[in-house]
Design brief:
335 residues; mainly alpha; two-stranded antiparallel ribbon; two-stranded antiparallel sheet; 6% strand; globular; lipoprotein; transmembrane helix; EC 2.5.1.145; Lgt; glycosyltransferase
């Protein structure tokens, strides 16, 4: 082993067993990494939306749609692009108690491009309910999404999966030779590219870059999300190309590499179109007519109504007094 090689964690760390009243709760580290990434993305997105004028906590209303549909999309995309892992003779893909069932997301296998597709549908639904602009939410989400993906990649490390080609670099990843994904014919002790680490660094750098650029140029109207697609797609295309895990191929290229190229192209088109269509600042994260006026505006409105009521009461009082005085004068002069 190289002196600075990266060891894979002990298999005991893959599942945390917590005894509860004689029953054992199994918590998979992969699932914890995914959940932690989702929580961080929600927090970051919520703070960014609030600073742009959205109602505090509204991100949760959208996340209730986006997160479940994103997870479903991520899993379906992975299963469809790795059919040999699930559909083989004797397999029961619908039995959650059997290893390799399509529901067992804790075993690994959640594709980010499927999450983007499913999550986008969920965001669109959530935005329709809340009145938030779709692209405003996407821009607020962009750096948080990269942070979530970086944290989620730690789950691959705990699962000893999705590593890259053999390498002599000192930071090579140690993988046991009895690992099912260990390439045949390689010597025990061979090191591999730690693609999980590469992607963590790449994603965090991308999040920092988007935040940095936002302070200098206009990245509203979907342009920040466009940069996310370009940045992530570029890095993922390279990391995917050096991985050794099996994947569906199209024209000799891994399907996820094609998806990465598509993300880059779509990001470039989105950026150019939105830059041409929207040259000014975004007036509000809400669609017209659905704006949130904030607690101060509500208080002012209440005070205005109160003042109006008081004014009306005063006018009524004056009219009543006038009428009473007139009546009294009339009565006093009547014989």
């Amino acid at each position: 082993m190289a002196p600075f090689s990266i060891p894979s964690p002990d298999y005991a760390w893959q599942v945390l067993e917590i005894p509860i009243f004689g029953w054992t709760l199994n918590i998979h580290m992969y699932a914890l990494c995914i959940l932690l990434g989702i929580v961080l993305a929600v927090i970051i997105t919520g703070r960014r939306l609030t600073k742009r004028g959205a109602e505090p906590g509204i991100v949760l209303d959208i996340a209730l749609w986006a997160v479940p549909l994103g997870i479903i999309g991520a899993r379906l995309y992975h299963v469809l692009t790795h059919p040999d892992d699930y559909f083989f003779e004797g397999a029961n893909v619908l039995n959650p108690f059997q290893p390799g069932a399509i529901w067992n997301i804790w075993e690994g296998g959640n594709a980010i491009y499927g999450a983007l597709i499913g999550g986008a549908v969920g965001v669109w639904i959530g935005c329709r309910f809340t009145g938030i602009r779709f692209w405003s939410f996407a821009d607020a989400l962009a750096p948080g999404m990269l942070v979530a993906q970086a944290v989620g990649r730690l789950g691959n490390w705990f699962n000893h999966e999705l590593f890259g080609l053999p390498t002599d670099l000192p930071w090579g990843l140690e993988i046991e030779s009895d690992n099912a994904a260990f390439p045949a014919g390689l010597a025990d002790g061979t090191l591999f590219h730690p693609t999980f680490l590469y992607e963590i660094v790449w994603n965090l750098a991308g999040a920092a870059l988007i935040i940095f650029l936002e302070r200098r140029i206009n990245l509203r109207w979907g342009k920040a999300f466009a940069l996310y697609l370009i940045w992530y797609g570029t890095g993922r295309a390279f990391f995917e190309a050096i991985r050794v895990d099996p994947s569906e191929m199209f024209l000799g290229v891994r399907v996820n590499v094609w998806a990465s190229w598509a993300a880059v192209v779509f990001g470039i088109i989105l950026y150019l179109v939105q830059r041409r269509r929207h040259t000014g600042d975004e007036p509000s994260p809400y669609v017209p007519g659905r704006e949130w006026k904030g607690p101060d505006a509500e208080v002012d409105s209440d005070e205005t109504e109160s003042d109006s009521d008081s004014l009306d009461d005063g006018v009524e009082g004056e009219n009543t007094t006038g009428e009473t005085a007139a009546t009294s004068s009339s009565r006093s002069t009547t014989p």
